[in-house]
Write the structure tokens for this entry.
Amino acid sequence: MSKIICFLIAILCIVFTLHTSSVYAVNMESSEYKIQFGTVDIAGGTESSGSYNLSTSVGQSAAKEFQANGYIVKAGFQYIYSIIPFSFSVSEVNVNLGSLIPNTSATSAITLTVSAGGAGGYQITAIEDYSLQTLSGASEIPDTPCDSGTSCDKSNANLWTSNTTYGFGYNMSGQDIPVDFINSNYYRPFANAANTPIPDDPEIVMSSTKVTMPTGTPTPAPASERTHESTVTFKANIDPIQEAGSYQTVIRFRATPIY
């Protein structure tokens, strides 16, 4: 008997954007305020020679960070690196594992892409709302325990190759993934927000502390180095007595920049 399994991916993306245009020094005023611009940068950028990198601002009287009365002003082109957009995307938001056959694993994969922008690093976490279950919640496919003798949990991947090990889990491959995903046969169950008596916390599935600003360089890394990708492979396997029906869950990915 075949079983139809499908589930949804819910995503929380954090995106910072910056739009720039040419500006000039000018005084602005209203009935209550008057703002006087003494100078605005007229040029700036980076220069390199041999083993040196130089970041420059031209026309700025004092290029540095100023603070007063709860306000912060960052003057100078050097600060542009702190506001490069941070973005995160998932290649698919609906994943269908198709009709499941007992003792035969079914898999499907998505790609996570993060561009760290001006952040020094980032982390992406994942958690499921609940185990795969029918729409009524009357029947479920439990989270995988991995193979007998090589048990896994939400923080530690392990081998899952046996066709008589049943459940639902995921594998990670690509950049910045946890080290316990040794190869494509290593799986974890997702952290579960519905666990009782204490719900799980989300687990980190991608992270890096240094993406845009390599040690010793004042300029951001090339775009290709700022953008990192990994693949999440979902896997389900059912036993011969699993109740027929449509099963679903929601997996929530959250991307957070680290400054």
User: Anything to note?
Assistant: Residues 3-17+86-258 form one domain. Confidence is low (pLDDT under 50) at residues 4-23, 213-218.
